[in-house]
Amino acid sequence: MRMKNPKDQDTKRAFTRRSLILGAGQLGLVGALGARLYYLQVVEADRYRTLSEENQFNLELLPPTRGLILDRNGVLVASNEDNFRVDLVPEQTSDVRATINALRQVVHVDDWDVKRVLKEISRKRSFVPVTVVENLTREDISRVAVNAPYLPGIRIEEGRSRVYPFGSKAVNITGYVAAVSDTELTGDPVLELPDFRIGKSGIEKLYDQEMRGSAGRRQVEVNALGRIIRKLPGDEGQPGKNVHLTLDMGLQIFAHERLERGSSERVPIADIRVQEAIARSGVPKRYLENDDGTVFLDKGGNIVQGESGAAIVMDVHTGEVLTIASTPGFDPNNFNKGLSARDWENLLSNPRHPLTNKAIAGTYPPGSTFKMIVALAALEAGVIGPETEVYCNGHTDLGNARFHCWKRWGHGKMDVMDALEQSCDVYFYEAAKRVGIDRISEMARRFGLGETLEIELPGERNGLIPTREWKLAVRGERWQKGETLITGIGQGFVLVTPLQLAVMTARLVNGGYAVKPTLIRREEGDEQIPKMNVSRGNLAYVLEGMRRVVNGAHGSARSAKIPESGVQVGGKTGTAQVRRITKAERLTGVIPNEELPWRERDHGLFVGYAPAEAPRYAVAVVLEHGGGSKYAVPIARDILARAMEADGFEASEAEPVEILPQAQPETDQG
Amino acid sequence: MATGMHSNSLNRPELTLGIKLQQINWGLILLLTLIASVGFAMLYSAANGSWTPWAMRQAIRFGIGLVITLGIALIDIRFLMRWSYAFYFVSLGLLGVVEIAGEIGMGAQRWIDLGVFRLQPSELMKLALVLALARYFHRQTFEEVGRIRSLFIPLVLVFAPAILVLRQPDLGTAGMIILGGGAIFFLAGVRIWKFVTVLVLGLSAIPIGWQFLHNYQKNRILTFINPENDPLGAGYHILQSKIALGSGGLFGKGFLQGSQSHLNFLPEKQTDFIFTMLAEELGLAGALFLLLLYVLALGYGFAIALRCSSQFGRLLALGTTTTLFLYMFINIAMVMGLIPVVGVPLPLISYGGTAMLTAMIGFGLIINCYVHRDIEIGRQGFEDED
Q: How close, in Å, is residue B306 to chain A by CA atoms?
């Protein structure tokens, strides 16, 4: 055995010492690892847990299916349909323009769309998809799909779009949906989905929340590449509720077209008469052409614009509105796709206000249709009786002022029913003078005039029933007696909406119940309709007057009869003057409406009901600047006839209606 | 001490196989098996609960590795010493081959394709360097080590492979070679002031060295300094790794439940980032448990080194232990964002043949030192040469 080298002892000592230092150092480093672990996994754990979950899960919103709008027979008035569109994700293509050009080889893309897309891309972040074309057919889509390898960044998306099968003919009820504007964002993330639409007017707006439903929320687990690994069960969301309207779409379409046509004729563009008219007057047909490629020709063979106005049919007992037409309309389907600025300008600047729902938001002087209110107010006050007679010599004087009857030489002796039948102004000057403005206003309000009726549409206007207080407050002047007389014939300050006229008529003819108009079909709730405190006897006198308006020998609306069905109609005409007739003009002869510019023509009104013996439907027609009531009457008659026909009052000799014999004796009285 | 050893059969020139087998640290073997088993479990999880493609192959490798460990443990330590330089130069030669092949291949080529498996000479080099340095310093007295002249050869031994590895380029391995070499210098008794001098010179050389770094190496260091700067680019891996670790919390998301790992937010979860996955699924508790296993295994290395009677054995045992420590530390520090991302595997756990082989050879060397702890070795590696 060899001896230990003492020098080895030095190296061994140094080794031992230094190995301990090294060991301590390594332990210290392991301690640092432990400390770091503690920091990450305990101190900062919550922060990293959140980040981890953000990595793991993406929240996916499932847009709810919008509720449908249906009419009383279940006909779809607004529905949804699948809509294919092509989106472009700018960051997925190296050359946006090249991709768009390649896409244009496959499907049609407007120049205008290309400009819009390029503009949107420059505004948005590069991973946000921009819609290039919408409403593609399945064929288009398959072409895009086949060419997908040459279309980097292009994605095919399937969405739902809102469809209004009846377009402009029900737009005043349905309203329309359009893209959400910045001011409408509420923080609900579903509103930020690229193709989400919300109601902008009509039922769509009023019932937007209900029809919208609630968005489903689903967490999807994604991997690092964003690929969906699994979908977690989540809140499936609620589809929107359907809205069932009281509307009868058949009648609605009929009323809309009938109202628009007025006294003219609907003729195809290709018709020789249209070509002649264009050659004669050079009217650019672009402005007058209807959606269906027709134009309106008046009796003189001239191309005319469609009438501007409103028509309402309602059930007098329930208040259910079967028809609520407003012309001209506009196509709500255009809003879904996005309206061009020019089209929007045209809608706004059109003097016939297609965007206004004239049935509820157009206010007009009721003219003679107001006379029932005046008559009833006077009868109820006892200032006139059924036998009270007034002599009409063509005018009434009050102080220095002279109030003219429409019939220049007067009607002679009139009782209240005669006065209604012939719409004698002098009688109602007298009645108004006797009963006073306060009681007229009070009666008007009881019949639904001068305040909103809370029909289920946005934008309803109050109209105006003047009172002394109103005039003092608004005009700062005292009420003048002459104004009472003018109010007596529905002129002056009085303004009503067509809907109010329909409700007034319904309340007059239903036995004095204060029905409220409704557009929404309800479950049988037997809601008690409050009875108005009006004497049945007095109502009967008014109704008899209204019956004679149509059926009487001197009735002002004898053309409203529906002889073919044998259903008796009652009603009242109204002509609302919109210009002042000067004394000079009165002497030389009042200029006929037909010769006046459109804006100065009288409004034509008619309120009616049928059947006269057991009223069921009330109708109100207002023709803006229609030239007087005589143009409104046939429209109302046709609409009523159509409503009765739909109800089983068949216009055929083969099926004599039972009601006929009962109706006959009453007709004889007129 | 010498008299006491007389009665001890272990310092006989030749040990019988039976005695050697008795002397093997079966406790350490058990510890290694435990650590490797943690690795199998994590690889099983990394494959979404499947033994293929990783866990089963790793277990087979470990089995083979265990045989190698035992085989190496039984080789006569003097034989090891005699062949140290030969191992070293073969490894260096292979590194050179990789260097040439790397010029032909693309990017970072670090292996030689042997058909059956890919040999990574830089891994072998780490152990060969320890052997070579241990042999060199074995015959140096404390005074000799103090002379600057005597440091020339070992410095060449360290920097020759370091430079080759850097050219590959592999910053992590180069760093490990230098640190591992430095540790042996330190243990051999190189004076402290020399380390201080080198440290100061090294720090002042950083701005110069910066220019020689590849862009991706610069980026790694820059993103290490501020990973949030580029969360989707170069900093992505560090950030996702930290998210995975942090979201694991105290007890983890549960085995097979690591969302970061399983949804591929975590890069290379079966190799370099396996510790992150473990910490995500098993939490702080699991991570600390693994650290404890490592500390115990490395503790064996220290204890063995201190019991060796030869300087060669001491340096070999502790040099190897330190190299394995560096593997572990660099890997874990990297995935926790403490140091830049360098491709260093976690010994015994990361999936990979060479990494497993290196660790098993390393522990074989350590156990060898224990088995031959009382063998006196002459300056040249023969028993009696005085």
A: 7
Alpha carbon B313 to chain centroid, angstroms: 17
Distance CA A541, CA A431 (A): 15
The mean pLDDT of B67-81, rounded to a whole number, is: 92
Evaluated on CA atoms A433, A439, A442, A446, the torsion sign reads negative
Which residue in the set A14, A41, A225 is minimally distant from B250, CB to CB? Answer: A41
Residue A155 lies in a domain: yes
Q: Do B244 and A33 touch (CB under 8 A)?
A: no
- Following DSSP, what letter does each residue of B225-293 receive, concatenated? H-GGGSTTTTTHHHHHHHHHHHHHTTT-S-TT--HHHHTT-STTTTTTTHHHHHHHHHHHHHHHHHHHH
- One-letter amino acid at A633 equals V
List the CATH number of the domain containing A136. 3.30.1390
In a domain, B383, yes or no: no
Indicate the number of domains in chain A.
1
Which pLDDT does position A471 carry in this prediction? 93
Measure in Å the smallest separation between the Cα of A35 and chain B Cα atoms.
Answer: 10
Determine, yes or no, domain membership for A231.
no
Tokens of A23: 């060991």
Residue B6 lies in a domain: no
CA angle A288, A294, A298 (to 5 degrees): 70
Show the beta-strand stretches assigned E in A273-426: 294-297, 303-304, 309-315, 321-327, 390-392, 395-398, 401-404, 412-414
For A299, how many CA atoms within 13 A lie in the half-sphere containing its CB? 4
Which range of residues forms the domain containing residue A124?
83-163
The total of structural domains in chain B comes to 1
**Torsional sign, CA B89, B94, B95, B96:** positive
Higher per-residue pLDDT: A245 or A593: A245
pLDDT (average), residues A306-326: 94
Q: Which of A7, A8, A41 sits opposite B283 (nearest CB)?
A: A41
Residue A66 forms part of a structural domain:
no
Instruction: Looking at mean pLDDT, say which of A272-281, B131-140, B209-218 comes out highest.
Output: B131-140
Amino acid at A323: T
- What are the tens digits of pLDDT across the range A359-398? 999 999 999 999 999 999 999 999 999 999 999 999 999 8
So which residues of A are the catalytic ones?
368
DSSP state of A410: -
Residue A159 forms beta bridges with which residues?
Answer: A83
- Neighbour tally for B26: CB within 10 Å: 11
Within its chain, how far is the Cα of A113 from the centroid? 29
In a domain, B51, yes or no: yes
Which pair of structure tokens corresponds to residue A26? 């390594």
The residues, ordered by sequence, that sit 6+ positions from B223 with a Cβ below 8 Å of its Cβ are B229, B230, B233, B234, B235, B238, B340
What does each C-alpha distance from A327 to A489, A501, B262 come to in angstroms? 26, 17, 64
Residues B46 and B42: their CA atoms lie apart, in Å, by 6
A 218-247 residues with CB below 8 A of B? 221-225, 229
Q: What is the pLDDT of residues B227-270, one digit of tens each?
A: 555 555 556 777 888 888 888 888 988 888 887 777 777 777 88
Is residue A92 a part of any domain in this protein? yes
Q: What is the pLDDT of residue B302?
A: 95
Beta carbons of B246 and A36 less than 8 Å apart: no
Q: Are the CB atoms for B189 and B146 separated by under 8 Å? A: yes
Contacts of B329 in chain A (CB under 8 A): 26, 29-30, 33
- Residue B136's domain comprises 27-371
- Tokens of residue B313, six digits: 């054995």
Helices (H) and strands (E) in chain B, counts: 17, 2
